[in-house]
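> run fold 4'-phosphopantetheinyl transferase
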Amino acid sequence: MPGQRTSAEGETSPEPTTRPSTRPRALAPPEAPTARVGIDRIDRIDGIDGVDVFLADLDAAAVTVTGTPCERAPAPLGHSLQEWALARTDVLSAEERHRAARLRLPALAARWSAAHVLLRILLSARTGVRPQDLRFATGEHGKPRIDGCGPHPPSFSLSHTGPHVLLAVATGGVELGVDIESAIGVAAARDVAAALHPRERAELDALGDAALPTATARAWTRTEAALKALGTGLSRDPSIDYLGTGPQPAQPSWLGAHGLVSDLPAPPSAARVRAAICVLPAPGENP
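> ok
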C-alpha cells in the first residue's frame, strides 16, 4: 500500500467482468515438474492459459518438497517453509543478498530472502535452469524479468505481506502483476483511499466503517497489480485508473480485449489478506 513499495516488483473469487476472447500465445513449459515446497496452490484463474498462481505461508510447516531442482534434502518435518527457504539462500545472487541486508529489520530481511528463494525455485522448475543460475534484468521502472531463456522467457510477479508470499508465473507472451495485502483498520483505509481514483474515493466515502477496509483493499490490490503488469509500478499515479471497490473488478480500457484484472481467492489460512492479479499481452504479441 502507499508508502510500502514504489517499484514495479515487489498479493470464492468473483468472476471478472470481461474475459480474454483469445488466449495469449504461450510456449510449452519444459518437462521439469513444478516445485510444491509446502505451497498451497491457488485455484487456476479461469480463462487464462499458462498462468500459475501460488500462495505460500512462510510460517507453515514445510512437510513436502517434491520436484525441485535443489540438491539439499527437505527440511525435517515441522520446520517452517521460511526455515526451509533460508537454508537455501545460496541460490540468491550477491545483489539480492545485499538488498536483503539493507532492510532495516532482520525479520523483514528473512522474509524477503525466503520469498526470493521460492521465486527462483518456481522459475527454475518452469525454465529448467538451476535456481542459482537464473539471471534477471529490470525495466525502466524496476520491473524484473528473466534475462535469457530464449525469446519468450516466462514472465512472473511477486508480492508479499507478513508471512504470505504470492507468486505468479506465466509462459511467454504475457505481462503479469500481482499484489497481496494484509487486513487494515479504518484509519489506514482512509489514508490509502486518498491515493485512489476519484470515483473509488467517492464509493469509499459512502461506506460505513465496517465495510471500508475490505473495499479499500480490493481497490488497492487491483490497482497495484495493474500497475505492476504495466511495468510502471507506483511511478504511475494510482489515482489515474479506476479498478472499482465492489465485488467485481472494473476493467480499464487500456486492458484491451485480451487483458484482465481479477481478484484472487485466499485459502482459510489466509482469510485476512486480499490479493489480485493483472494479465496483459506482452508488447508486440498478437493473441
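The first strand starts at residue 40 and ends at 41.
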